[in-house]
Amino acid sequence: MVKVTLLARKSNALTPSSLRCLSHLPTINMTAGCVHGCAYCYIRGYSQYPGDDAVAVYRNTAELVERDLKRKRKKPIAVYFCPSSDAFMPVEEVLDQSFRTMKLLLGQGIGVQFVTKGAIPDHFIELFSQHPDLVAGQVGLTTLNDQLNTAIEPRAASAKRRLNDLARLIDIGVTTSLRADPLIHGVTDCDANIESLFAEASSRGVRHVSASYLFLRPAIIGSLKRSIRNPELLRRILAPFKDAQRAPIRGGAGGGTSLPTDLRRSGLERIDTIANRHGLKLRICGCKNDDITTAKCHLTNLTTTARASHHKNDQPDLW
Length: 319
Ligand code: SF4
Prior knowledge:
The protein is 34% helix and 18% strand. The chain has 319 residues and is of the alpha/beta class. The chain has one domain (3-306): pyruvate-formate lyase- activating enzyme. Helix 6 (191-203) packs parallel to helix 9.
């Protein structure tokens, strides 16, 4: 059971990100903490993290965004939800603030970009359908195996629900992609898992997928050890990092431990081959794979490219 508390936000709601790929858009978090409780989540190392079974909801976010926008001479092209939270977590107060904030932004012609592992409620789909060229969404999913999802992302939406939300977003003309992140070597990156995931995504109209491998920090290792109850699964998750290397995140957002370069390169090449087979265009996270690609994430170009084209079977280039 997760304890939900309401909190008045005192600082600005729209904030810059330390990640280079998000640096030109304001970002917003609806909460401190996240009820989805992903065992690998990096927010568990943050000073304002309220604990594994707690979430603090900012109850005045929509009002603060309205105030922030009135003060700005130049409005942002889009706002990114949420670098350290999830706008669609199953908490009424979060969904209420997310809806009001997104409606306000879209009403002023400001784009809404999001990444989620939650279930997107119908009234959001209805809202997005009125502004498809202003909305871009990524749905995070690395496996169709819900037993594994429950162990790693205990309160995120089921695989079926996330796939159906991808289809619903594509259906209303929203620029949409699958985010297979973080992949876990030896657990979710095997051919059979990736084949079935990409086949299901492709059959729902997805044409773009981004992928990245698990990246460890001390707080994430602690979280995995606390959260993963199955000792064999925990061993399999951590084993490939035995010979791992310290790696920076491009753009100066700290660093961590990544899989050895050769393992990551060969894994991502294999995943690229599978993606091609299913008509998917793969992009890897350039920020966390500085040693194997010069590509940028281009994550935040979603909305601007979406404006160029928003037909169901003509999903634009996302990166
Ligand atoms: S949904 Fe995102 S923010 Fe929430 S716990 Fe999972 S990784 Fe962290």
